Amino acid sequence: MAVILHALPNKIIPVEGAPCVLRDYVIANEDMKPLILTLRGEFEEIYGPTIAAAKDPFPVIIAIRVKATTNHYLSLSTESSSVILIAPIAQQAMHLQNWHHTHADVLRQMLNQSSYTNPRILLPPVNNNRITHIATVLQQKPRTAWIQGIVELDCVPLKLTYIACSLCYYPSKLVSNLPVPCQHCRSNADLVPRALIAISLTDATGSLCAAAIDIEAERLIQYSTAELYYLQQEQNVDLTQYLARTLHGKLLMCYIKPSPSKFKPIRRAAYEIITSYAIDELFNAENINMNNLNING
Ligand SMILES: [Zn+2]
């Protein structure tokens, strides 16, 4: 159960040859972490007008059996078995509305800052007991996991950016200053470069290779995408040593997912980093106990 804070413009995408309407709604509850709920197809056709016509500009929504997705950031989406209720008459819904009235200013501010696309707000760092050993990740292949490990630069020669559709971020084979039809989402969209880097993460049990994309890559290597794109075009600049030095030995807590098979920007990187925290950002360096972290220093 959540309050609908905002409806984003609807989108029409082809699904199995037929056009399908979908709309993203920003919702929030007492967790204070606004996030996107996507109503797909008939859910938007049926409930979109109800939401738009609701007496309360911030109607309460109950969404049952919705799935969590991690495309670009954490969000929720309907699937065929989902159940949606708008403005239910229930005691809890009234509580939630009262809660929204008292927190409306803060929520509006979070909405203006697009906090629902910010993994640092949606996925704050977790306690040690929620960290999965890398060996367990490799064996059990969970859909997402928090891991912790020591970083090294992986994959040389380096590919530091790729050209992507500005809407769905899938890679484009074309390079153009004009909008081009995207092979993945079919929109006529501008192309943008996106930063990309592969790192290996090692804990006491094993190691894996993961790709950091866009702001995750920028944060790790402290270069902007524009700078990386420029440097990559320059023949005589070798960033390998700089990057290896910047990354070497960093201790990182990351939330990862397997790279989608349709889009693996770096073949060796079986995982993609959804968000990450440098451990020294979280604790004072002297308080880090390597044994507790379960990492061979
Ligand atoms: Zn696209």
TrEMBL record:
SUPFAM superfamilies: Nucleic acid-binding proteins. It comes from the Eukaryota. InterPro entries: NA-bd_OB-fold. Gene3D superfamilies: Nucleic acid-binding proteins (2.40.50.140). This is Replication protein A 70 kDa DNA-binding subunit D-like. The lineage of its organism: Eukaryota, Viridiplantae, Streptophyta, Embryophyta, Tracheophyta.
